[in-house]
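#lab-general

N.A. 3:47 PM
ok so I finally got the sequence cleaned up, no stray characters, all 444 residues accounted for. can someone with queue access submit it? mine expired

B.Y. 3:52 PM
send it over

N.A. 3:53 PM
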Amino acid sequence: MNNTMYHLIFRCVNGRIPRYLPVLLLVALISSCQKTGFTYNNIVDNNQNTDYILTDTLSVRTQTIQQDSMPTSGAEVLLAGKRADPLFGTSTVQSYFQIAQPATIDIPANGSKYDSMVLMMRPNGYLSGDSTQVQQLQVYRVTSTIQTAKNFYYLYNSSSFSTESTPIGSFTGVIRPHTDKIITAHMSDQLGAQLFQMLVDKSPDITTNNMWLEFFRGLNVRGGTGSTLVSGFTANDTSLVMRLYYHVNELITTVKYVDFKMQASNLQFNQVVTTRTGTPLAPLTGPGKTLPSASVGNQGFTQPITGVATRIDIPYIKNLAYLGQFFKVMRVYLSLKPVNGTYVNDRLPPRMALCEVDKLNNVTDTLTYGQLTIDKQFNANTNYTFDITNYVIKEQTVTDVNSRGLLLTPSATDGKTTLDRLVIGDQKNTQNPLKVQLYYLLYK
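B.Y. 4:20 PM
back already:
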C-alpha cells in the first residue's frame, strides 16, 4: 500500500466524508488479513470505525554491551597506531602478517652488493585522529607461527603472537591518507644484509616455502611511543611489500631490488587493546557486561572493533494486539540520532546495520541497513532510519524463547577495518531522542 492510499484513508476517517468510502473499501480488500472468523470485508459499516493511526509511544529499552572477540582477519586492511578517545577509551592497534620469499632468485655472487631494505605500505585513505600530527610506526619480527586456533577460521582483535623485543624497522612522519601513495619504513640493515646473502647463496631457508616460514614467521606493525592516531593501509600481496635493494657492478652499475610480498591474507589481522579507565564505558570490563543507557546520560555506544555495541529492545510488541478487536501493523520505522558533540573530530559510520540477537547477544540474522542522513544546515536531524516492519510483525507472535533484540553495528567491513564509532540518544534523551514510528490499522 503506498502513501497516497494512506492519505486517502486518513482523510476519510477524519472528515467522515461519504464519497471516500469506496476508496476505503477497496484498500481494505487489497490489504485483507487472514484471521479466523474475520477479514477486512466486514470491518466497515455504519456502526463501527476503522482508524489509520501513527504512534511514537512504543517503549524502547537501550543498553550498551561488551561483546566477545571480533574477527579482524582477511579484511586486507592493516591498522596501526594509538588513539585516545574520551568516550571510548585509549585503543592501541597493531597488525600481524606473513611475508613470502621472492618468486625468483637470481643474484650473481660476484659484483653484487646489498644497499638497503624498506617496508612499503600504501595508505588506504583511512585515519582516526588528527591527520596533521606526526605518526610513529615500528616494525617487529614475529617469532611464533601466525595461525588460527584449532577449529577456528579467523583471527580476532584479541589474538596475539610473540615478537622480538627490539624493532627492526620504523617510520616517523605526517601521513596524508588521501594523497600519499606509499610510505616506507626503513628496515634493519643487519637483517637486510643477512637476507641478501641468503639470496646470493640460494639458501634452502629462503628457497623452500616451509623452511622460509620457519626462519621468517612474519612481521608486526604497531604505533611507536609517540603515536597519537591510527592509520590504515591496504594489506595484500601487491601493496604490502618488504623490498630489498642491491646493485650489480657491471659496465654500468645497475640498481635492482627483490620483493618479499605479504602472503596468506586470511592470516593478516589487527589486534586492538582498549583501556577505558575514566570513560563512561569503564564498567564494561569483559564480555557479557551491559550498561543501561540511563546510567550513561541516556546514550548508547557502538564501536565494533573494540567490542562495544548498542542493543535495542522493544519489549511490549505483543501488547499491540490488545488495542482493538483487530489490529494490523502497516509500517514501522526506527530513527536513531547521533548525539551532538560526539562526532566533532570523528567520522560517523556511513551506514549502519540492525541485526537480530538472542538473549546472549549472539547475532542470528541481519535485518536491514540504514544510511546516514546529514543535516548540514542545523545539525538537528542528522540520523539513521531503519524499516523494522517485518521485525515487529514477527515479534508479535514468537515465543519468549525465540524473541530477538536488535543490535546496532556498522557494516561488517567497516566494523573490523576502522575505529568508527557512534553515540546515539535513547528514547529519553532530551536533544537527540530515539524514535519508533508505528503506522497501524485499528478496528475498534
